[in-house]
Structure formats: C-alpha cells, structure tokens
Design a protein that fits this description.
The protein has 6 helices and 6 strands, in the order E-E-E-H-E-H-H-E-H-H-E-H. It is an alpha/beta fold. It has 2 domains: 73 residues, Methylated DNA-protein cysteine methyltransferase domain (Double Stranded RNA Binding Domain), CATH 3.30.160.70; 81 residues, Arc Repressor Mutant, subunit A, CATH 1.10.10. The strands form 2 sheets. A 4-stranded mixed β-sheet has the order 3-2-1-4. A two-stranded parallel ribbon has the order 5-6. Strand 1 and strand 2 form a beta hairpin. Helix 3 crosses helix 5 and helix 4 crosses helix 5. It is globular and about 40 Å long.
Length: 174
C-alpha cells in the first residue's frame, strides 16, 4: 500500500522512446513515479498522477534516468536498477518486494511466491501480487518479470499482457 504524498522538491520529465512516451517524477531521494511507454506525452503524464500535480517540469534533473530508459526501450542492455528510486512512502513489505523485483535479471522471470519469500513472507504471494499491481515505478521496478507459479503471464495493469510479453521478449534478445 502506498502512503500519502508529501509535497517536496519534485520535478518531472516526459520524453519519447522507441516504445512510446515515458514520464518520470522524482525528488532528492530518487524517482517516485514512472510511466510505462504510452502513445502520447499526455497519456504518460496521466500515468504519473497525482505526483505530477506537485512537480515542476525540469528535464535537466532527470538526464541520467532519461538516457537509461531511452536505451532500454531501444532494446539496449542497460540496468535500470542503476536509477535511484524513492520508496520511503511505501510499506516495508512493498519496499522489500520492489527491491527483490529489481534484482530479477533482464530476460528472466520469477513467481509471485518467490517474490513474497524475498520480501520476508513466504505465504504472502497475493501480497506480492498487490505490490506489483500497485507498482508506481513501471520499468524501474520491472513487474513484467513476475509471473504465475506455472510460468503464465498474469496481470499488468492498464498496459495489458501484450506489453508484458513484448518487454520479456525484448529482454530475452539482449
């Protein structure tokens, strides 16, 4: 579960990639929200609500993240875990689940059960699913790498399973 937002020095950027438009919002402690690739800048900005309402457009604050995300979306082998994220406003379980998710290598998958175990509660596979469903750091917390225990793709928010499959296929070819 995500806790309330505090207004701090948030800035944002929205940029075009080979897969579509991506928006990111961040502050002094890292990125707090990131969109999946969207069909327009407006759609990407809609995805980063409500934090965008407290942010100032400042692309220069996010050059490193933009370069890595753009390279990733172009199919280059980069590690998006190099981008600092701010998880201070999340529950400890979600934070651990997101950190574990970030440790899954590109092109590989893990189950919700594995994710729950890594987050400290072997019996909380549904909780791990909720952590992925409420992931506000798309691509940076690569929830597309988390699948059912039988390997089937499951859940991927409004983006749908086709984008999840596309991201996994792209990573398999890196």
């Amino acid at each position: 579960m995500v806790r309330s937002i505090s207004i701090e020095n948030l800035t944002y950027d929205v940029f075009d990639t080979a897969m579509g438009w991506v928006a990111i919002v961040g502050g002094d402690h890292g990125i707090v929200r990131a969109s999946l690739p969207e069909y327009s800048p407006e759609a990407a900005l809609d995805f980063v609500q409500p934090e965008i309402n407290f942010a100032v457009h400042s692309p220069e604050d996010h050059v490193d993240a933009r370069v890595l995300i753009t390279a990733y979306c172009a199919g280059e082998h980069v590690d998006l875990a190099d981008i600092q994220i701010d998880t201070r406003k999340t529950t400890p379980f979600f934070r651990k689940a997101w950190e574990a998710c970030r440790s899954i290598p590109a092109g590989e998958t893990r189950s919700y059960g594995w994710l729950a175990e890594q987050a400290g509660n072997l019996k909380a596979a549904r909780g791990a699913g909720q952590a992925m469903a409420r992931n506000k750091l798309a691509l940076l917390v690569p929830c597309h790498r988390v699948v059912n225990s039988n390997g089937d793709l499951h859940g991927f928010g409004g983006a749908g399973l086709s984008l999840k499959a596309r991201l996994l296929a792209m990573e398999a070819n890196l």
